[in-house]
TrEMBL record:
Protein known as: RuvB-like helicase
Subunit structure: May form heterododecamers with RVB1. Component of the SWR1 chromatin remodeling complex, the INO80 chromatin remodeling complex, and of the R2TP complex.
Role, per record: DNA helicase participates in several chromatin remodeling complexes, including the SWR1 and the INO80 complexes.
Phylogenetic placement of the source organism: Eukaryota, Fungi, Dikarya, Basidiomycota, Agaricomycotina
Coiled coil: none
Length: 462
């Protein structure tokens, strides 16, 4: 069977994730010796956990760690998810990072083990070397002729290197691509002949004088030498899951856009694994073990845990990072209680890193970072109030109040958020403690009352 990797189409589907609550995080904020800086790349404090994360990351990057697992354990809103996001940001762009929340495993239209297998295979990259034919040179002229109706376009592209110059005929697709990339005369570009993908390398030095078409970030490059058409070795990384999907469906890589991948047959996976092993032997491919992050891991059940145990021992296993805010909790699917809601045999394979509640000055810094990120100005008084409010509520509640208070402030036509706005927002939105009090107060009028004796404890912030 022919196994394809979808090459150029796939390179366009990069990670398109928007993480609102953690968008201020740019990395782990460690120096070269892996020592955490107090406040760097959006992360504040939590030094031990960040250092541990950095050490693990280093091992991942060196390809030394696979099939291991670590667990972030700590009270709610102590930065477990935040640190995992920081790890994702500091991995190289071609090291896969997959993030799932344990409950997703149950809500997909497939079996739990299939969902986990897919998550595992998303986190294993295959770095593939391929030869492709490209056109590389400096654009001399682009000439576009539109038909009267504008429906069809034809054109000519003149492109040169220091040694030669060639004119190519352009079709509608190429013209659109050139327009989309805003290619102008004087740009040095690369065109992938099979996919038609255009990459702008920069402006030619020869044109550095005509500064009409430049922004501040314009990059200058030499006009290429030699032949315009050449063969080039390209290296790109796809995940095993992507290879699975492309080969399992007639519509191929389009299924990846739709996200509708369905279950994949084990035979197909075996065939792909064999093929990848072949490529490795021929020196055409390398395995890049990535990271799989499972948030709220106590939501998995005993079947999933036993699957994890097995999967971690497989030949192709990523680094698995888990996070949980539970102390002693029932293992889902059993009657037993266990630390963090994880069975002991899994815990045994896991490196545990704990996160601790923040000090007041750390909270203040985190609040300030979030204000910057959300583009909200707080008066110094408001920052003080919000910081002390955090001690009574939680960090996450306070961070949520920032944008609510801004809406309140805008209503009284103020650009700055002051203490009054915070107060008002605090009245509108309850935190967990007040909500519990209110529940007690309204006892009996809400449906679903308590169940005796099965309470799991969330790790305490105090
Ligand atoms: N050290 C930190 N530096 C900067 N921001 C942080 C830090 N720790 C937490 N935050 C921010 O505080 C908020 C809550 O943190 P986070 O979501 O990581 O908590 P968590 O430990 O995953 O909690 P839970 O157990 O409830 O999932 C997030 O917006 C996060 O980005
Ligand atoms: Mg979390």
């Amino acid at each position: 069977m022919q196994i394809t990797t979808g090459t150029s189409e796939l390179r366009d589907i990069t990670k398109m994730e928007r993480i609102g609550a953690h968008s201020h995080i740019r990395g782990l904020g460690l120096d070269d010796r892996l020592e955490p800086r107090e406040n760097s790349q959006g992360l504040v404090g939590q030094a031990k956990a960040r250092k541990a994360a950095g050490m693990i990351l280093k091992m991942v990057q060196e390809g030394r760690i696979a099939g291991r697992a670590m667990l972030f354990a700590g009270p709610p809103s102590t930065g477990k998810t935040a640190i995992a996001m920081g790890m994702a940001q500091s991995l190289g762009s071609d090291v896969p990072f997959t993030s799932i929340t344990a409950s997703e495993v149950f809500s997909l239209s497939m079996s739990k083990t299939e969902a986990l297998t897919q998550a595992f295979r998303r986190s294993i990259g295959v770095r593939i070397k391929e030869e492709s034919e490209i056109i590389e040179g400096e654009v001399v002229e682009i000439q576009i002729d539109r038909s009267l109706t504008g429906a069809t376009k034809t054109g000519k592209l003149t492109i040169k290197t220091t040694d030669m110059e060639t004119i190519y005929d352009l079709g509608t697709k190429m013209i659109d691509a050139l327009t989309k990339e805003k290619v102008l005369a004087g740009d040095v570009i690369v065109i992938d002949k099979t996919s038609g993908k255009i990459t702008k390398l920069g402006r030619s030095f020869a044109r550095s004088r005509d500064y009409d078409a430049m922004g501040a970030d314009t990059k200058f490059v030499q006009c290429p030498e030699g032949e315009i058409q050449k063969r080039r070795e390209v290296v790109h990384t796809v995940s095993l899951h992507e290879i699975d999907v492309i080969n399992s469906r007639t519509q191929g890589f389009l299924a990846l856009f739709a996200g509708d991948t369905g279950e994949i047959k084990p035979e197909l996976r075996n065939q792909i694994d064999t093929k990848v092993a072949e490529w490795r032997e021929e020196g055409k491919a390398e395995i890049v073990p990535g990271v799989l992050f499972i948030d709220e891991v106590h939501m998995l059940d005993i079947e999933c845990f036993s699957f994890l145990n097995r999967a971690l021992e497989g030949a192709l296993a990523p680094l698995v990072i888990m996070a949980s805010n539970r102390g002693m909790a029932r293992i889902r699917g059993t009657k037993f209680r266990s630390p963090h809601g994880l069975p002991i045999d899994l815990l045994d394979r896991v490196l545990i890193v704990s996160t601790k509640p923040y000090s007041e000055s750390e909270i203040r810094q985190i609040i300030q970072i979030r204000c910057q990120e959300e583009d909200v100005t707080l008066t110094p008084d408001a920052i003080n109030v919000l910081t002390s409010m955090t001690a009574q509520t939680t960090l996450r509640y306070s961070l949520n109040l920032i944008s609510c208070a801004q809406v309140v402030a805008r209503k009284r036509k103020s650009e700055e958020v002051d203490v009054v706005d915070l107060r008002r927002a605090y009245m509108y939105f309850m935190d967990e403690k007040r909500s519990v009090e209110w529940l007690k107060f309204t006892q009996g009028s809400l449906i679903f009352e308590e169940i005796e004796g099965t309470k799991d404890d969330i790790m305490d912030t105090k």
